[in-house]
Amino acid sequence: MGNTLQAHRKARNSATGGGLPPRLLQAGAAYLFLLPGFLLLTLFILYPMLYSLRISFFDWNVIKPERSTFVWLRNYREVLSDPIFRRAVLNTLVYTAVTIPTELILALAVALLLDQHIRFKPFFRVVYYLPVITSWVIVTLIFEYLFNSQAGLINYLLRDVLHLTADPIRWLADPILVMVPINLLGIWKGVGWSMIIMLAALQEIPTDLLEVAAVDGANPWQRLWKITLPLMRPTLVFLLVVRVIGGLNVYISVLLMTNGGQPLDLTHSILTLMYKETFDRLNFGKGAAISYLLMLLVFVISVIQIRLLRRRVEM
Amino acid sequence: MFLPSEYRWPHKLVTYLLLLIGIVIVAVPFLLMVSTSLKPQQYTFEYPPRLIPTEVTFSNYTRALAQDMFFRYFLNSLVVALSTTALTVAISASLAYAFARLEFPGKQVLFYILLMGMMIPPVMLIIPQFLVAKSLKLLNTLAGLIVVYIAMNLPMQTFLLRGFFEGIPRDLEDSVRIDGGGRWTIFRHVILPLSRPGLATVAIFTFIYSWEEFPWAHVAIKETTRRTLPIAIALFQNQHLTQWGQVFAASIVALIPIVTVFVALQRYFIRGISRTGLKG
Predict the structure, then answer these.
(1) Of A3, A209, B38, B212, which has the maximum CB count within 10 A?
(2) Does B178 touch chain A (CB under 8 A)?
(3) Quick check: is B219 in a domain?
(4) Euclidean distance between CA atoms B141 and B213, whole angstroms
(5) What does the alpha-carbon distance between residue A193 and residue A133 come to, in Å, rounded to a whole number?
(6) Interface TM-score (ipTM) > 0.90
């Protein structure tokens, strides 16, 4: 077997490779497989990343980039001392802190419920996944309609069914109240994706392990905490990190629901502010600085999470 | 769950009850959208709001579809989503194959670069991408959307497929190699056919992404005839603030392809995810 394999290799190498060592041949083949992908990555991700860093140090001239003046850290200083930016960071952090933990807990609950012998499982899966495959634009519009002050379903429920308020609440006009539909939308849209990933992880857990534990008298609660969750740990850490990044990048729902930060630029997320600074005020340098500050925030938060969660594994 | 039999009944009941409550919360906004799209305009703000329309009409659909080149936008979205999906599947599969199966100098560095691509907030690249696209004359073209969408999807999808390919036993490839097959033959005739769930998962993720992508299209497309659906719908709503029936009719038509793709491929979906690198 081994001999024939070698013989074949030799035969093939001498036929095709002209005596080149197989190692080199393999590397050559690998680079051919990598070429199209890395071409695109370089052009549209790596180069833009560096380009954007450069822009962030300039008072960037959009029409004539060569006339831009180097201002070192001025864009960053201006952004950091801007109360509108601070408010946008606060809004974004609150959004992430509210939506992501809630979403993950609900997703876990649904995944655990669906990971049983129940009927209509595909139906449940598809319906729970529906918000995920619906575009942000459409779900945002639906929520605007639900939270409409005159005839929205939410105000109707609060006022005429539950009698919690006498006057209709103007959800979309108030800088604080508008956070309610934005956050609820984030949770509502996010649950399905995390749920599907958790469901996939749950199916990997060997059932005999749970059976043995049940026979030994462990109740469902104990089985969840002692077996299921520890075995799902890598998945949960992955989801937490990825979803927190997603939360910090909240954009379309805020852009559409607040009409780009209305009223008075109090309702921005970091990214809607970046958009406004760049494409409305044409201040590319400041916009690029905001996006780098966001990346820094994402990086720091991700590293902290991975550090904390990893340490606990080692203990 | 392995409860003693006397607990089973209430337990099942609670399970279904909780799942149903969840379904209601998920479904009511969609039902409201469907029913509003079927109501005559004067009932859009009826009070109390009704989930079942008293009077059904399709005029919102006929008007929305006749409006503003709706079919043009639909076609644009379809071209963009299909091209992006096909090319992303092909390119990320070949990247993933190299990382999963081949040895070459610089492998680790290139893989870290790929992982870094996963960490970058997509919207922060918009400014430089705008400038790059501008100098390549890709602004206001569908090709400009497609190349950026592929690039944005590659890191995550390659990572996912690499995990999938690594789960395929190597002996299968050896037998091809003994028969004189090269890398390309192995990739094309062993790896790809065995990876259908993984490829379907990549196709679903990519199609959803490119069908709904808003930020980049919002910046890159200013020419009316090149708009994709998310842009068209958002602008339409902005111009016709109270025409909810038509907005939702357009939205529902926009939802049809994505739901079709998902329902068609969903049986591969869970299997695909559980065998990829995705779950950590």
Answers:
(1) B212
(2) yes
(3) yes
(4) 15
(5) 9
(6) no
Give the DSSP per-residue string, A216-276: TT--HHHHIIIIIHHHHHHHHHHHHHHHHHHHHT--HHHHHHTTTTTTTT-S--HHHHHHI
Backbone angles phi, psi at A59, to 5 degrees: -85, 90
pLDDT one-digit tens code per residue, A265-311: 889 999 999 999 888 888 899 999 999 999 889 889 988 888 888 75
Q: Which residue, among B180, B193, B172, B164, has the nearest Cα to B275 in the 3D structure?
A: B164
What residues of A are in contact with residue B107 (Cβ under 8 Å)?
30
Per-residue tokens: B92: 């990320």
Structure tokens, A151:
């005839």
A 48-107: CB under 8 A from B? 48-49, 51-52, 55, 65
Host domain of residue B238? 62-170+196-279
CA atoms of A186 and A257, how far apart (whole Å): 12
Quick: pLDDT tens for B203-225: 988 998 999 899 899 999 988 88
pLDDT for res B59: 82
Enumerate residues 6+ apart whose C-beta is below 8 A from A119: none
Phi first, then psi: what are they for A69, rounded to 5°? -105, 140
Which domain covers residue A165, as residue numbers? Answer: 74-314
Q: Which helix (H) or strand (E) holds A111?
A: helix A83-114
- Note whether residue A25 is domain-resident: no
Report how far residue A95's alpha carbon sits from residue A90's, in angstroms, rounded to the nearest whole number. Answer: 8
**Nearest Cα residue in chain B from A125:** B266
In one-letter notation, the amino acid at residue B47 is Y
CA A208/CA A214 separation, integer angstroms: 10
Alpha carbons within 13 angstroms on the beta-carbon side of residue A268 total 20
Same domain, yes or no: B51 and B70: no
Which among A125, A15, A45, A194 has a CA at the least distance from the CA of B117?
A45
Cβ–Cβ under 8 Å, residues B73 and B211: no
Q: Which of B1, B233, B267 sits opposite A138 (nearest CB)?
A: B233
Q: Which residues contact A57 (CB under 8 A, 6 or more apart)?
A: A70, A71, A72, A73, A75, A285
**Residue B127 structure tokens:** 């400014």
B81 — contact with chain A (CB < 8 Å)? no
Token digits for A308? 């904390």
Q: H helices within chain B, ranges in order?
A: 5-38, 59-66, 70-101, 107-119, 126-135, 142-166, 171-178, 183-186, 192-194, 196-212, 215-220, 229-239, 244-274
Do the bridges between strand A69-70 and strand A58-59 make them parallel or antiparallel, or are there none, so unpaired?
A: antiparallel
Whether residues B17 and B116 share a domain: the answer is: no
HSE, CB side, 13 Å, CA atoms: give it for residue A140: 24
CB B114, CB B159: distance < 8 Å: yes
Residues B12 and B52 in one domain: yes
| Contact yes or no for B279/A200 (Cβ under 8 A) | yes
